[in-house]
Design a protein that fits this description.
about 325 residues, mainly alpha, three-stranded mixed β-sheet, two-stranded antiparallel sheet, 15 helices, 5 strands, binds zinc ion
Length: about 325
């Protein structure tokens, strides 16, 4: 987390991940280096708070398994303030105990269902290594993947629609916080960060049946890029399987639900790559020119996917806190 830039620079999308059966053997995750120390995290809270956290975590555990269709997936507490994510190599969901205590429980329910939906339909392994390694590309993927996953989860589980709305309405506040923090640190907000948040914001309008209406405070270059790519972004976040299709063991034409899940991911990725990235990359290039790219990756999570190399030289690869659920200023 602290030396993230270095990690990204030496980031390789490991073939080991691609070759490994999916998901990885669930016996291995518990031994993995990335699993947070649950006891230590809990000890930071009072006994009464611990009780509340444990009780709520237990409920979320069932929900994550149910939505993820994976009854072995662990739901672990992250360090307070660390955010929420699905670590797809370890196949583990991390949740933020601080949110669990303080936020309306409906928001936590939605967030864990969102992470479970990543488990269900996100298949980053369809993306070739050389594309993935382009600075800023994985950030763009994340900014479209979250809307795509949200579409899937609220279509499949209508009762989560209210909690989703509540979460993203509250999210306006942490976006403001994140922007302020980035501005304080860097003097200004990186263009690619603004663009990523803008896609999510426009998706939220779209999901509420409202037309696109770009934020007024967007710098002209960011506005142009988002404007030029919004239609493609919508096309991309629409590419998700219906739950019935995803659950199918075998269809008429011989495609399983898993084939369907991968096919949707592939199409969404190709739209991002062919129709959004050429424009989005202009912002990344400008940020690199201004030396903001490196600093922003160093200083914040910002939804950038992280990579790390362990002692054996094997590269591990994991997903950061969700861009939209994290106060990246912390
Ligand atoms: Zn997400």
């Amino acid at each position: 987390m602290d030396d993230q830039t270095e990690r990204i620079n030496m980031a390789e999308r490991p073939n080991a991940v691609l070759d490994r059966p999916y998901p990885p053997d669930s016996r291995l995750w518990a031994l993995g280096p990335n699993r947070p120390n649950q006891k230590e995290i809990l000890s930071q809270f009072s006994p009464a708070e611990q009780q509340t956290i444990n009780y709520r975590r237990h409920i979320l555990d069932s929900l994550a398994s149910f939505v993820g269709k994976d009854f072995k997936i662990p739901v672990d507490l992250n360090s307070p303030g660390e955010g929420w994510y699905w670590d797809f190599q370890a196949n583990r969901i991390g949740i933020d105990p601080q949110n669990l205590l303080e936020d309306p429980f409906d928001e936590s329910r939605f967030k864990v269902a969102h992470e479970g939906s990543h488990r269900r339909i996100s298949r980053m392994e369809v993306i070739p290594l050389e594309v993935w390694r382009e600075p800023g590309f994985s950030f763009l993927m994340n900014a479209i993947e979250d809307p795509r996953v949200n579409n899937f989860v609220v279509e499949a589980y209508r009762t989560l629609e209210g909690p989703m709305r509540q979460t993203y309405q509250a999210g306006v506040d942490f976006e403001a916080q994140a922007k302020t923090a980035a501005k304080e640190k860097l003097g200004q907000i990186p263009r690619f960060t603004r663009a990523g948040f803008e896609y999510i914001k426009q998706w939220f309008r779209w999901s509420q049946g409202q037309g696109f209406e770009l934020s007024e405070d967007l710098p002209e270059d960011v506005r142009q890029v988002v404007q030029a790519t919004l239609e493609a972004a919508e096309d991309s976040w629409r590419r998700y399987p219906a739950k019935a299709g995803a659950d199918r063991l075998e269809s008429e034409n011989g495609l399983t639900g898993e084939d369907l899940i991968k096919e949707h991911q592939r199409r969404s990725y190709e739209i991002n790559r062919d129709r959004i990235w050429p424009e989005f990359k202009k912002l990344v290039d400008k940020d690199i020119e201004d030396q903001m790219m490196q600093q922003s990756m160093q200083g914040t999570q910002q939804g950038e996917y992280k990579c790390a190399e362990d002692e054996g030289g094997e590269v591990t690869f994991f997903v950061p806190p969700d861009v939209a659920f994290t106060d990246v200023g912390k």
